[in-house]
TrEMBL record, chains A, B, C, D:
EC number(s) reported in the record: 4.1.2.5
Gene Ontology annotations of biological process type: amino acid metabolic process
Domain of life of the native organism: Bacteria
Cited InterPro entries: ArAA_b-elim_lyase/Thr_aldolase, PyrdxlP-dep_Trfase, PyrdxlP-dep_Trfase_major, PyrdxlP-dep_Trfase_small
Family: Belongs to the threonine aldolase family.
Protein name, as recorded: Threonine aldolase
Length: 346, 346, 346, 346
């Protein structure tokens, strides 16, 4: 089996060696199961150091589970969740929010996957009108599916707007480490300090094997979550193998080191590839995703050796994504091949 | 952190070293995600060697997921699933079959968690009657929640009974390795050869970190399952870390060696503990679970050092369970402590 | 089209003429829709005279809707509802509680469809255990599916037992008028006075065209019900045609007169048919349903002219049910035909 | 109780006298329940005269039920239904399609509530991609929520587009009588002849008390619907009182006479009110709904006497709707009052 040369997704990376080592070390014999082991309980405490002592943390195995179950826990089926039309919950979870979350999504048009109070406001009508789903949560993704970042002030504004209207704010943080690295802030700064109510916390894309969490920051929500997680088929028996990953991920700045590596490799790729005639990088690169215009024939040549997504067939945009495992050499080799491909098709 | 002295559940064991090694070896860099990697595709082929070429295998992370999603895939919400009242789906999944599977369960009284055509028949009335859920699946657990085994003939009889009535047969095989080891038969002998329609295949309890699968043997069912699995939040991105476990689990008889170890340790415990005056082993020990009458005061003493479940407070029954990781020394130490505890309370 | 000679169900009767007249009178031109019309609002007030001022009343179109939505409104999907195994919610709603209510039902064995604290207690284990559905509601049916009545004291005992354990009590009162008539008590006596939490109130079987209601008596439950009813497809637009029925049903003792007629016709039938040699009435006749042993060949003869259900093919039991529309002449003609049929097959 | 002067919705009208008479006549004594009565069976046959012999007709009590259950019957939860953003299923059913239908809706931007193949096409990507809900149904509303009509050719084009892509077409016909009257065509012409797959047929707004139906025209879909309807709490016991309405509605052109009256009263209102200086009718009036710009102060005056909706507060648009029960005198009186109100605020 040979490794893939991938700029497709940070999901294509493996696990960081230190995290793999933590998994191996967790294999110490018999422990209690279903999250009642000391290792999982200790990891909760580590999370509280990052998110505040009132945080309640529940581990799950996929980002879709974190999103759907977090949202389900804070809504009635007659509530709606407002999100950008590009949101993962709207496009990339195969209808899970509706079918397994019992949630009505209200997708809001957006250019870059970001919401603003002004964009949300027109979709909040009909409060108290029995024929309409009642808005309950604003869900934002940080960074967005288009690789863009909310500033802390922008998040704060959305939270204020939401709380004024008795709405909750959910932050889909599948890649929140990349966002914090880019904004040079802590998880606490981005969530607890801004009164975000609940978070989907992702570890998988940034170096774990499989480790995600639902984190309730608002003490008034999510009370029955342990039952819901079990019912939702997400209570793994040998939980230590999940919590050990996340404990290591949070320790010794590993999450930050990994995220910085991913982000800086994206910047390097943007700078070097963007300098090639015939390649245009679309917009700024906020984190670890970039979008480029490139001749479609060059894309075809590159796809023989590399794995990445054509984002829009019509305007010849491709998405390139870097990860904690992307190295300078990988970027440079890729840039070299891009240059050759573009020249070959001139 | 110190290891637990546990006879509570095979879930308390860690991962078999060979399986942990396979996980470490799977960490080779970038691979496609969501099960499209070669490693996962190859593991499918290994499963087909065990279950036949028509088998379709879908990996999930919990036994509850395997049960609920397998059953959901083959039922309409107006169907019912018949099971023993002791079934895991009825008692131990926090209502997941109903809430996330859309399934009406019909629990059937049973002494040992086993069903028979005779016990099922009275619950099959009202076919075609629009007010009644329409029976669609008979779900059996092998071994049962009470540690008992169906003979192959008994399974065959249930399948014949089911198919004569246009019903499917689901086998909850969270511990099916233990069953095959005890009955000295292959997975194929126990399922495909008997025309069982779908199987929940468990690897976690017998040495994996986290590895379960839904296996459709009947070619006419389960077509949309990949969408359902994604929607049900069970499509993990770095699937190789699941499939690598199961590939190793199936290779070199590891599943069988582990299951035999668990079973033989239960037999050893039953023989040695059963010989202690004041301790009575209830019934035969078919696999790796045993139930014992023991003075409640002795149980209290033992629970200070060991972890296991009081099964029935009223008749002073405890459940002891062994695993692939249980050793002769552990059993003998435990037996010794049982003897002391029983003597201490005489 | 000719009328059916039916002793099958009170559902086979038409509408009482006074109720039909009320529907005709409600047709006065334009009114607000969806229950915001004065007629519906006034009917709420009439209900409060019967159930107390704290009652909140929501009209629906079927008894299944009343049961499922009332229960859904007071449960999380990880809760369970305990009921007799014969309960309508368990057997006669095609899995609606599970599929549309998200409810785990725990059916409890019973001889006559009645529950007792003693029968319920063994099914209340596992509180706080994340693997088990958490008990939340005890649902009783008055009269039961087997035509039996709880005394007020028996209901009171169940409510006390429930409230001591933080459980709610739901009374399925599809035929509660018959129960109140038989026990010579008011709706208030049977529910509000006993601290029952919520009621499915039936009007259809006792003289309405289509008129049922969910009534919350406990002020702490069911807050979001109007949204749930709309979402559950039960908010009819021209609500006045439902509420007008129920207003008339409650006025001038119509509900009581109708129920007494049904009950007394059942008693008459039991006495007269029971006196025929070869016919045995099983147990006491509490309300308007009776169960009789009768030679199967006689049943065949009777079914040529009459419509009723064979309750149990094996022990030759039939169910006969009377309604507000059953007359003495109808009973006497039926008894005469029973006698002839039984004699013919001797 | 005094009648409402309503131009708010055709839901505010009562029942047509001939239909009320049919309900009264249906009250002939005992009949079989749950739709097994001759009256309901005969009504099925009447519907087949209108929709073709292959049509299967299932009565329900609300338009929301017809939409949600029809769509649920033809989809898996991992399918999506594409509709205009203004669709009733998207905005006016309180999330029922998602929560009780298990359906992912994909709302498509539209000016007048109409869809076209060109507007739909961009939303059909990701077929076979496991992360995305799989498109299955295009749902169109005729007339739309904005009172606009599809021509038969436009429907035909959508059906052809859909069937080419293995999609079904659902027609939400809550007001389809108004559409057929306006287009001078039959129900058959608008649905069966164009290969529409399933229809939500509405009778309530056009003269019934409560009478809607799900009609499957495509013989390959909707097989289990009777179970689904029961489970969805929509199987009324005394079905004759629903079917009798619809039978009369279809007989002697009553549906057409009523619809023509509603439509022509809307035209009259548009012509006469549109001639008032200060009032502008927006666009053409296709059926029985019209939208008008009118000074907001005039609206306030009118709302003291009349009941209608402010459609858009920002651009001072109101919606006026006529029904089968709207008379020329009512229109003329309303027009007179509009004139006075507009003049009063000049």
């Amino acid at each position: 089996m040979k490794e893939l040369k991938s700029f497709a997704s940070d999901n294509n990376s493996g696990a960081h060696p230190a995290i793999m080592e933590a998994v191996v070390k967790a294999n110490i014999g018999h422990l209690k199961s279903y999250g009642e082991d000391e290792m999982s309980i200790d990891t909760d405490e580590v999370f509280k150091e990052f998110f505040g002592s009132q945080a309640r943390i529940h581990y799950v195995t996929t980002g879709t589970a974190a999103n759907v179950l977090g949202l389900r826990a804070v809504t009635h089926t007659y509530n709606s969740v407002l999100c950008a039309e590009q949101a993962h919950i709207n496009n990339d979870e195969c209808g899970a929010p509706e079918a397994f979350g019992g949630i009505k999504l209200v997708p809001i048009p957006s250019q870059d996957g970001k919401l603003t109070p002004g964009a949300i406001a027109p979709y909040l009508g009909h409060v108290g009108f029995v024929h309409a789903s009642q808005p309950k949560v604003i869900s934002i993704t940080q960074p967005t599916e288009l690789g863009k970042l909310y500033t802390l002030k922008e998040i704060e504004d959305i939270v204020e707007f939401a709380h004024d209207r008795d709405l909750l704010v959910h932050l889909d943080g599948a890649r929140m480490a990349n966002a914090c690295a880019a904004l040079n802030c802590s998880f606490f700064d981005m969530t607890t300090a801004l009164d975000v109510d609940l978070v989907s916390f992702g570890g998988t894309k940034n170096g774990c094997l499989m480790g995600e969490a639902v984190i309730f920051l608002n003490p008034d929500i999510g009370q029955g979550f342990p039952y819901l997680r079990k019912q939702a088929m997400q209570l793994v028996s040998k939980m230590r193998f999940v919590s050990a990953q996340l404990e290591r991920y949070l320790r010794d700045d590993l999450w930050l080191i990994n995220a910085r590596q991913a982000n800086s490799m994206a910047t390097r790729l943007a700078e070097k590839a963007g300098a090639i005639e015939g390649v245009t990088i679309k917009g700024d690169v906020d984190c670890n995703a970039l979008f480029a215009h490139i001749p479609p024939e060059a894309t075809e040549i590159l796809l023989e050796k590399y794995y990445f997504y054509i984002w829009d067939e019509h305007d010849h945009t491709v998405r390139w994504m870097t990860s904690w495992a992307t190295t300078e050499d990988m970027v440079d080799e890729f840039v070299n091949d891009i240059r050759k491909a573009v020249e070959a098709v001139k």
